[in-house]
Amino acid sequence: MNYTLPKLDFQYDALEPYMDEATVKIHHTKHHQKYVDNFNEAIKNAELFDSTPEKIFPSISQVPDAVAKNAGQAFNHSMFWKSLSPNAKKGPGEDLEKAIVRDFESLNLFKDLFMSEAAATFGSGWAWLIDTGNKLEIVSTSNHINPLMDIADEQGKPLFCIDVWEHAYYLKYQNKRPDYLEAIWNILNWDEIEKQYSN
Ligand code: MN3
User: pTM of the predicted model, to two decimals?
Assistant: First the structure.
């Protein structure tokens, strides 16, 4: 049983002008596809035939490196695409807003903290909003790591993520990662983030 590349819920040019068509297309059809293909190859080689990334994460420290890296990247990209929408609302609905205000004082402060955490991620990685059960936290992870993995410094249920690998923004924003992050804020899929929160 092969793990397959999920289709996007929008066209490649739908996130313009915040994310350009070429970046989205290459990111999905080349980068994400490659992680999915490599994941299938890696679980075959490791004889972990029925594995999915989600099943592997709680014991990812026990699997071969190639499985771990590609499981992480396959899942993280799927979550990233779900985190974006061309028809984004301006902000979260009531329940999630309450939780954000409880843990970060205000929506504006939350945005500032998220931006600085994401901008400060050293090298390649991801920025996440996670639910630890009793509070929301902003975390950044290196390379393929995500907060569902047993090796993550901080664990919790991810509500959304932003890819801060250079391939996510370099064509349009070059080295200006903060500009990319600012742009992304306009296309955050709050409906989906709320869905993850209430799950
Ligand atoms: Mn990427």
Answer: 0.96
